[in-house]
Every structure is written in C-alpha cells, then in structure tokens.
C-alpha cells in the first residue's frame, strides 16, 4: 500500500531524483546544531523552544531556496517536488527526535509520524499544505499527545500550513470504512519517522480489511468525485485561466488514476501498470512527462506568488512562459505558445484517463467470478446496431465488433462518431483506446475520401447534438487530424480577458449555440434569429461557416482573410457546391463586421447603415451573418453576451433590411422631424395646449428622428416635473432586464465637459457605461441618456443601484462632490493590470459619417478612462454628439461622433494630429497628468453652452 516515487526508470531520463538532495540540507550538521542548543538553554524553556524554532526555520528557508535554484537550472517539476518533500522529511525527523529526547521523553517507537495526501506521494509543492498522520498505539498517553502538540506548534510557527490527525490504527481502519476521503488519505500513507512497525501494521490491515473486495466501490466514488470537481471548475479543460491542480486535465486527474491503480491493482509504482498491460510504454512515458510538466508549472506558480496558488492566471502566465524558455513565433506570442502546450498536456491527461478506464473495465470483467460473472456477462452482452456491421452496442455505448475495424476500413474512424450520433450512444473506452492507437490511418487518402467527408458533414449538421460529437472527436484527437487546419488551433489560447476558452473549444461552443437556436431553445434570448432560422434553407453552409470562422487564428495575417482562404479549400472537400463555398468564404471573411459596426458605430447615423448595406449586399447574407455573429459572441464565454448587444444587432439588422429591400423613406429629414414633433404634440393630449407646444418644440432633428415616441413622452414628463420642482439638475432611471442594461437620463444645464463629468461619476460609482445618447434642447439644456451594464438580476436591487449612481452624478454636477476625489477614492487600492499590453491607438475618420468626424480610441481599460478621454475632447473644443463605449475584456474601443464648436468636421491636419497626440497621452501611463487635467466637477446651474454652439445646433434642424 505504501506510496513510492513515480517510475524510477523514467525519472532517470528527466533527472535523478536523488541529485541535489544532500546539497540542499546537511542533515547531520543540522541535527548536531539542534543538539547543541540544549547546552546553551535550560531544558523545556521558552528560550530553548525559540532557539529551536529559529534554527529549523533558517534551515527550511535556505533549503527551499537551494531547491528553487536546482529547479531553475534543470527545470524538472517532479524533482523539485521530491526535493522539497525530502527536505520536509528531514526537518520533521530532526524535530521529532529532539522532542522525544528533550521535551517529552518517549521511546522512539512510541509514535509513528507519516505523511498523507500529496506529501504522502513524496511530492510537495513550494506553497503546499503539509498533511501528517500521527499514529498512536492502542492506549496513547498524555505525553504522546503533548509531544505531537509541541511538534505542530513548531511547524505552524515556522510558517507551514499543517493538516493533521492523531489516531490509533483501529480508528484509522474504522474511519476509512466510513469516509472515502479518509480512505484515500490512508491509501497514500508514507512513513517518515518514529514507530515504523505501526505504519506497517496499518498497511497490512488496510489492505486486508478495507481494500479487499471494495475496488469497484472505490473506483466509482473517485470517478464521481472527479466529475463533480470538473463541473465545479467549468467542466472543460480549455479555460484560459486553468486550475493546474483541480481543473480538468490537471494534476488531480493524474492523482485519481494513480489512486485507482494503487487501490485496484495494488501497484507501488506507475511502471508496474505497463507490466499489467494497463498502459503501454509510450503511454507511461506520456503519463510521466505530463506529470513533470504540470509540476513544473505548479512550482513556478508557487515560487512566483509566494503562496499556494493553483490558478494559472493572466498575471503570472507571461513570467512562467519566460521561465520555461518559450519564445514568440509569427502569429503566436511566447505566452500563447506556453498555454497551447499546457492545454495539449491537459488533453493528454484526458487521453490517459480514457485508456486507463478501458483497461480497468476489461480487467474487472475478467475478474468477475463464477455464476455471478456469467449472469453479469449475459446481461451486459453486446447488441447489434441496425445498419452497421462494424460496431455493436455495449450498455448504451458504441464498441467495435472486432479489433481490426479501423485497419480494414479507415473510413470507420469517422463512421464511429456518425453511428454514435444517430443512435445516441456514448463511447466505449476500449473503442477510444483503439482509436487513439490508429491515428496513423488518418492520412490524406482518408481526408479526401468522399464518404468520410459526407459522414463528417452529416455529423456537423446533425439535428441532434453536433457539438457533443464534434467535442468527442476533438478530445479523441480525430478532428484535428481529419482537418489539419483545425489541428493547428487545437488547444490554442488567446492571451486576453475577452476569450474564456481555447480557439477549438470556442468553435465547438459556437456550433453548440447554433444547434440550440435552431431547435428553438433560445427564443427568449434571441427572438429575431429564432424567427429567421426556419427561413434559412442552406443549413450546411451556415454550420460550416460557424465551425470554421476562426480556423486561421494564430497566423501573422488577419485571421478573417486567411480563414476565408482556408474555407475556399475545405468547403468543396466537405461536399459544398461553388455557390455554397462562396457564401462560406464571405461569411468567414466578414464574421467580425456586424459585431463591430453594431457595437462601435452610431446606428442612428444613416451612413453607418448605407456603408454596412454595401458590404452585405443581400438579405440572405444579412440573415446568415446575423446568426453567425450571435453564435460567435455567445460562445466567447459566460457573461459576454447580453441583451444590449442583442438590441444593437437587431437595430442594425432591421435598418439594413429596410435599405436592402428598398424601404428607406424618400421623405426629407426635415419633413420627418416635423412629423415626429407633431406626433409628440399629439401624444401629450391630456396636457394643456401651452405645455404641449412648449415641450414638443424642445428638441432638434437628431432627437426626434432617433428616439422612440414612447421615450419622447417619458422624457417630456420628466422635464416638466423637473421644471415644476425648480430643479436645474435631475436624473431619471429605469431598468431593462431583457437588454441587461440600466438607463440613467440626466437633465442639466449644457456644458462642454458634461459627458466627461457624467462618465467620471459613473466610474466613481463603479458603473460600466455601454452607450451614451447626447442631445441638446432648444432652451440650452442637455438631455443625456447613459446606458450602463446591469449588475443585479433583481429589478429592485438594480433600481437602488441606479438611483445611487444618479445621485452621484447630481452631486458631482452640482459641486457637492469633486470628481477627482471620488475617482481617487474608488481607484486608490486598485491593482494596475500589468498582465496585458495594448498600444494606445487613436484614429479620426471623416468618411464614416456625413455630418461628424468619428474619433475611435483603442487601449487598455482602467477606471476613469472614459472620463479622462471625454475631458480631453472637451479641452480641445470638440462637441461630442454621440458615443459608443465597447469593452472586449481588458481592451476598450470607444467611438465618439464629434464636431468642432461651429459644427464642422475636423479637417485641419494640424488639429487632427494634436487631437490624436493628446488622446494617446491620456491613454498611456501618464495617469497623474491626465487626472490633473480633469474637470473639478463644479458646474454652476446657470452655465450653458456658448451661443455659437446653440446657434449651430438649431441650424442643423
């Protein structure tokens, strides 16, 4: 039962585990130094205890530092874990000997000190807990308990986190029968010092009284525990910030395999699994290499953070990639290459799990004795699957009819997944094991085989669960080999906070979203495309485009253009005709266009719609592009999609559909604005004629043509109530649960810095602005609507939050609070994001709008950034007419539609250059300078926009 070190043979190849151990600690010298303390200090005195603590702590610190240096030189994570474990053993042994000799005199064999958990496997990460089991004889004395207590307090004072239990052998046996966690811990018990006979007796009784005959029970419990752990961690190994210890494909999965092997096969070394036929030599080598890599990553994490950090976060990924020697290559940074290696290792762990479980099931079947075994085999015998001779059903799982199925016909590799899809079968571990060992059969002949491609396209467009089968193909290693272009993006991560998954996992999730929408299961989230889907007859084209839209990620050129070129080759291979191929190529090349236009352009500006319509050109393209866009955003990660993005896409779709169908009104803007003002006048029917006339004439053309009548009436009521109350400043809030957005409308005396102040107040209140609609009334006031991302699911909670933000805006505008102070309070303790580098970019375009210059900025996000940018635009005498605020993880792309103070575009080259320079300065690290330029936040209620601006605004009408 005793845990031994992992495969000495393979360790010899990656570095002798004994090398460097004496060099990190001179055991005899330390023991002599501790003994000498008894000559300097009174027995059992505080001074003796303090001196002992200091001596052991110093030895531990120096030993760990030496272990770190060995690790940095040779790079083996397992060797590092072994050295630290060995160091800990020596410290505990010396401490135990000192205690039973000088503190609580006992016989050396009265107590056994043993390691359990990861420490029991003779591996210890730099920041890991130390799990100890103190074994007592049947009748432990107070002296024994006090000796253990003294040891624990010394270890705690040395800075170790110690998990411990003190039990007799009888208690260990009883508790291990009742509790699977305790049973696992005792399975890994390893003797350190003290009474070796007690540990030996525990091993013997544990094998005889606990493990005997309970193998299936233990296996089921461990696999269920693993599945629950995976669900908690997100049930995918492709999270871009994985948990190296507990995540899917992490160290705990390897530990689970070894626990089961030890329990069921009674092996002491992973190499023994080769002798038993469970793993091949190549698979054992993969097991050990995977374990060593994961340990190397984990040790680096602990050394870098100085604590037991198990999450491989963005903050440390760059440093670990550098420490492990990764370098950038065209299309992939060093950190992305490191993380791709990590995910490939995690995938290897999954492969090993399948192989191991297949062997385990086969061994269990052989081991079932007598009549029970005959009944079991009869009940579980294979059944024929209609329509196929190659495969059979075994307890709801597809299995091979004979071992040579793939060798006889390599197309059966693809057919295996097709049949499983049609009949709703899981995969027998043995079939997957044989599949893994048949990869050489997936060659160009199979890739170009017409039947293989027909079967694949059927899987991709399955009305059942195509993403599930594709994921099984990917996990088995088939998808990346059958489509080599897909293989290049398997396990590829993108080093940003926006994408939550690797590229291959993102693509499979995109297919999953499309299938969900097609089945009508997302009509509450996507009412428009749920309505459109039945009218899209060419399902094959749409599914192929969805699967391949990011196929060219990681290349030097734009992945949309490169992806279109890849699709031109792959689509005909899959069986698509020339017309379908051209549609796939276009969709992949334009797959980001609709999202970027909807989120970063003013959809009330007609040129936005006409430019987009020119790129789309047909209603079929528009429908398919909308579906692809929605699926793409939904599959990025949890929380990325929201109703507000859906509303922006619907608006863009409806406006473009109208134009493509020839439905844009030929009536002039002036006539339409006049009609809208009359509609507002009529909608205020229960008001006095004077009020109806006053409040229907407050607004200019942009407001009347872009704001729905329902909102115009609500705004009119809001302004009238503020006027009656004599309020120069007022705010109104409402929530949109479907859009996941909260609306704050601000009525204020107009001022060039108004948006900057409002943005700063929102930042101070912790609100993320998604959009801003900015209007000026004919009496010199500003009516601005700020849309912020919703935070609470409950409307009452969200309304309270919005009211607080509204009050903050009012306080800042009135001068009751100073903006720099409230933002400083909010951001004082915020850690700067050093993990990402986004060069600040500012572009001014005069071709995106007929009336406005469009200023687009792109940079690393930070609190108060929007306020600083809008303050700069105000400093430069630019009038902001509308804004689009878009966040992609750590990156922001903010777009402002602006004019100068006389309502003209920015055409002077010197001024354009000055605007760009000032914006880049505020987006860079010059935060203190930027904050110094921020407005004071005091805006007197009587201040209004200068006369020339008001005059120009009126002329626009």
UniProtKB/TrEMBL annotation:
InterPro entries: ACT-like_dom_sf (IPR045865), ACT_dom (IPR002912), HD/PDEase_dom (IPR003607), HD_domain (IPR006674), NT_sf (IPR043519), PII_UdlTrfase/GS_AdlTrfase (IPR013546), Polymerase_NTP_transf_dom (IPR002934), UTase/UR (IPR010043). Residues 1-386 are annotated as: Uridylyltransferase. GO terms for biological process: regulation of nitrogen utilization. Keywords: Hydrolase, Magnesium, Multifunctional enzyme, Nucleotidyltransferase, Repeat, Transferase. SMART domains: HDc (SM00471). It comes from the Bacteria. Pfam families: ACT, GlnD_UR_UTase, HD, NTP_transf_2. One of its GO terms (molecular function) is [protein-PII] uridylyltransferase activity. Has four distinct domains: an N-terminal nucleotidyltransferase (NT) domain responsible for UTase activity, a central HD domain that encodes UR activity, and two C-terminal ACT domains that seem to have a role in glutamine sensing. The gene is glnD. Belongs to the GlnD family. PROSITE patterns: ACT, HD. Its EC number is 2.7.7.59, 3.1.4.-. It catalyses: [protein-PII]-uridylyl-L-tyrosine + H2O = [protein-PII]-L-tyrosine + UMP + H(+); [protein-PII]-L-tyrosine + UTP = [protein-PII]-uridylyl-L-tyrosine + diphosphate. Residues 743-824, 854-933 form the ACT domain. Residues 503-625 form the HD domain. Uridylyltransferase (UTase) activity is inhibited by glutamine, while glutamine activates uridylyl-removing (UR) activity. SUPFAM superfamilies: ACT-like, Nucleotidyltransferase, Nucleotidyltransferase substrate binding subunit/domain, Poly A polymerase C-terminal region-like. This is Bifunctional uridylyltransferase/uridylyl-removing enzyme. Its cofactor is Mg(2+).
């Amino acid at each position: 039962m005793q845990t031994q070190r992992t495969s000495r043979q393979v360790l010899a190849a990656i570095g002798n585990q004994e090398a460097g151990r004496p060099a990190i600690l001179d055991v005899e010298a330390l023991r002599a130094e501790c003994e000498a303390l008894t000559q300097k200090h009174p027995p059992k005195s505080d001074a003796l205890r303090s001196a002992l603590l200091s001596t052991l702590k110093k030895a531990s610190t120096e030993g760990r530092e030496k272990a770190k240096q060995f690790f940095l030189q040779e790079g083996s994570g397992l060797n590092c874990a072994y050295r630290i474990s060995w160091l800990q053993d020596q410290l505990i042994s010396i401490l135990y000997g000192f205690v039973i000799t000088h503190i609580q005199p006992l016989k050396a064999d009265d107590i056994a000190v043993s390691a359990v958990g990861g420490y029991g496997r003779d591996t210890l990460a730099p920041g890991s807990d130390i799990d100890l089991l103190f074994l007592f004889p049947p009748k432990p004395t107070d002296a024994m308990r006090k000796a253990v207590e003294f040891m624990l307090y010394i270890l705690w004072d040395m800075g170790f986190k110690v998990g411990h239990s003190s039990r007799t052998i009888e208690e260990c046996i009883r508790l291990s029968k009742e509790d699977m966690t305790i049973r696992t811990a005792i399975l890994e018990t390893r003797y350190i010092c003290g009474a070796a006979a007690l540990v030996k007796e525990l091993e013997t009784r544990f094998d005889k009284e606990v493990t005997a005959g309970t193998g299936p029970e233990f296996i089921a419990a461990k696999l269920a525990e693993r599945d629950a752990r995976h669900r908690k961690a997100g049930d995918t190994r492709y999270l871009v910030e994985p948990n190296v210890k507990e995540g899917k494909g992490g160290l705990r999965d390897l530990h689970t395999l070894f626990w089961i092997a030890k329990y069921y096969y009674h092996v002491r070394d992973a190499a023994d699994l080769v002798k038993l036929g469970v793993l091949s030599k190549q698979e054992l080598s993969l097991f050990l290499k995977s374990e060593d890599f994961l340990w190397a990553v984990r040790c680096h994490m602990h050394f870098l953070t100085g604590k037991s950090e198990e999450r491989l976060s963005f903050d440390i990924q760059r440093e670990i990639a550098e420490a492990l020697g990764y370098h950038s290559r065209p299309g992939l940074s060093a950190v992305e290459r490191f993380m791709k290696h990590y995910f490939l290792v995690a995938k290897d762990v999954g492969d090993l799990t399948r192989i191991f479980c297949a062997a385990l099931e086969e061994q269990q079947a052989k081991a079932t004795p007598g009549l029970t075994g005959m009944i079991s085999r009869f009940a579980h015998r294979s059944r024929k699957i209609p329509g196929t001779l190659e495969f059979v059903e075994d307890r709801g799982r597809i299995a091979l009819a004979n071992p040579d199925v793939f060798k006889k016909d390599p197309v059966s590799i693809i057919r295996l997944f097709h049949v499983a899809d049609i009949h709703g079968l899981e995969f027998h571990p043995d079939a997957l094991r044989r599949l893994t060992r048949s990869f050489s059969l997936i060659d160009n002949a199979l890739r170009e085989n017409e039947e293989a491609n027909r079967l694949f396209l059927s899987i991709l467009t399955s009305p059942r669960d195509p993403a599930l089968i594709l994921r099984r193909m990917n996990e088995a290693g088939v998808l990346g080999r059958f489509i080599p272009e897909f293989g290049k993006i398997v396990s590829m991560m993108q080093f940003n906070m926006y994408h939550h998954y690797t590229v291959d996992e993102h693509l499979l999730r995109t297919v999953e979203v499309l299938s969900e929408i097609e089945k009508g299961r997302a009509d509450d989230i996507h009412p428009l495309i749920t309505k459109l889907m039945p009218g899209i007859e060419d399902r094959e084209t749409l599914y192929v485009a969805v699967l391949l839209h990011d196929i060219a990620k990681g290349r030097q050129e734009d992945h949309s253009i490169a992806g279109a070129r890849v699709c031109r080759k792959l689509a005909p291979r899959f069986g698509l005709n020339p017309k379908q191929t051209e549609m796939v190529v276009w969709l992949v090349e334009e797959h980001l266009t609709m999202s970027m236009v909807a989120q970063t352009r003013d959809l009330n500006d007609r040129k936005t719609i006409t430019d987009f319509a020119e790129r789309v050109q047909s209603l079929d393209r528009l429908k398919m592009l909308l579906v692809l866009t929605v699926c793409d955003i939904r599959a990025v990660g949890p929380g990325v999609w929201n109703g507000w993005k859906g509303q922006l896409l619907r608006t863009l779709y409806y406006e473009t559909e109208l134009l493509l169908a020839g439905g844009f009104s030929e009536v002039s803007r002036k006539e339409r604005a006049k009609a809208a003002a009359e509609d507002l006048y009529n909608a205020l029917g229960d008001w006095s004629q004077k009020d109806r006339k006053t409040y229907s004439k407050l607004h200019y053309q942009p407001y009347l043509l872009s704001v729905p009548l329902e909102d115009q009436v609500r705004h009119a009521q809001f302004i009238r109530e503020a006027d009656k109350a004599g309020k120069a400043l007022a705010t109104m809030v409402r929530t949109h649960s479907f859009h996941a957005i909260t609306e704050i409308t601000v009525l204020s005396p107009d001022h060039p810095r108004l948006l900057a102040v409002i943005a700063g107040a929102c930042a101070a209140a912790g609100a993320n602005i998604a959009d801003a609609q900015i209007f000026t009334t004919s009496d010199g006031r500003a009516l601005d609507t700020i849309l912020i991302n919703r935070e609470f699911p409950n409307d009452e909670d969200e309304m309270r939050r919005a009211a607080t933000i509204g009050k903050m805006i009012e306080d800042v505008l009135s001068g009751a609070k100073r903006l720099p102070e409230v933002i400083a309070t909010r951001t004082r303790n915020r850690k700067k994001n050093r993990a990402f580098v986004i060069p600040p970019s500012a572009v001014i375009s005069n071709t995106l709008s007929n009336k406005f210059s469009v200023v687009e900025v792109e940079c690393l996000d930070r609190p108060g950034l929007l306020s600083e940018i809008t303050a700069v635009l105000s400093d430069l005498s630019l009038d902001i007419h509308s804004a689009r605020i878009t966040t992609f993880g750590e990156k922001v792309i903010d777009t402002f539609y602006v004019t100068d103070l006389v309502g003209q575009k920015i055409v002077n080259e010197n001024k354009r250059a000055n605007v760009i320079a000032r914006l880049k300065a505020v987006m860079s690290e010059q935060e203190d300078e930027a904050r110094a330029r921020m407005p004071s936040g005091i805006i007197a209620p009587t201040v209004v926009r200068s006369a020339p601006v008001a005059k120009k605004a009126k002329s626009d009408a």
